[in-house]
């Protein structure tokens, strides 16, 4: 178990506006004050590792060391079995280092032009460190299964959401209301697991 004061700050090791909105929305009911690393002048960490968990740990350690605060980091992406698991850890940069969501989606559609097996899943791992050298990081993961459409649908969400069809609802990630998306998404599942592992005190 990990204990955090609900009156204390936690730095979020991300500069992705979509991720920051979702994480803040999930943590708000627990009274945690979260601040993005960019607001504290922390530059993005390197993410050279081949696995989501290694990259999440690297980001959390970097943010905690730079701020002296507990740090939460998320590493996530979409994995397509027919593409050998790609885009995977390269999801944010699938179309290049300066890629936008639109360019990444275009590249994914192009890569799947002749692919009949459209199965895909989002994967998320969230890491929480009390300090940068925490020997017992709290790690939680979640998956969201669906399939890749042949054309985007919806205007909400971010990343590959316009192409990702949730089988249960028949809606894409970009068509789901934020509250409903948080209940079924990879990030929502991982965050709930993380919160179950935390003991939140009131001061």
Would you kindly provide a brief summary of this structure?
The protein is built from 5 helices and 9 strands; from the N terminus they run ββαβαβαββββααβ.
**If classified by CATH, what would the architecture be?**
Alpha-Beta Complex
- Major β-sheet annotation: 7 strands, mixed
The name CATH uses for the topology is: Maf protein
Strand % is: 25-35%
CATH class: Alpha Beta
Amino-to-carboxy terminus distance:
17 Å
Spans of at least 5 consecutive residues whose pLDDT stays below 50 are: none
DSSP helix fraction = 25-40%
Count of separate structural domains: 1
Radius of gyration, taken over Cα atoms and rounded to an integer in Å: 17 Å
Mean pLDDT reading: 90
SS summary, helix count: 5
Structural class: alpha/beta
Helices and strands, in order, run as EEHEHEHEEEEHHE
The total count of strands amounts to: 9
From the spread of the alpha carbons, the general shape counts as: globular
Read across the widest sheet, the strand sequence of neighbours is: 3-2-4-5-6-7-8
3D structure, described in words:
The chain has helices spanning 17-27, 52-67, 101-111, 178-184, 186-196, and strands at 2-5, 9-12, 33-36, 71-79, 119-129, 138-148, 164-166, 171-172, 198-201. It is an alpha/beta fold. The strands form two sheets. It has a seven-stranded mixed sheet. The longest helix is centred in the first third of the chain and has 16 residues, at 52-67. It is globular, with a radius of gyration of 17 Å. The two termini are 17 Å apart. The mean pLDDT is 90.
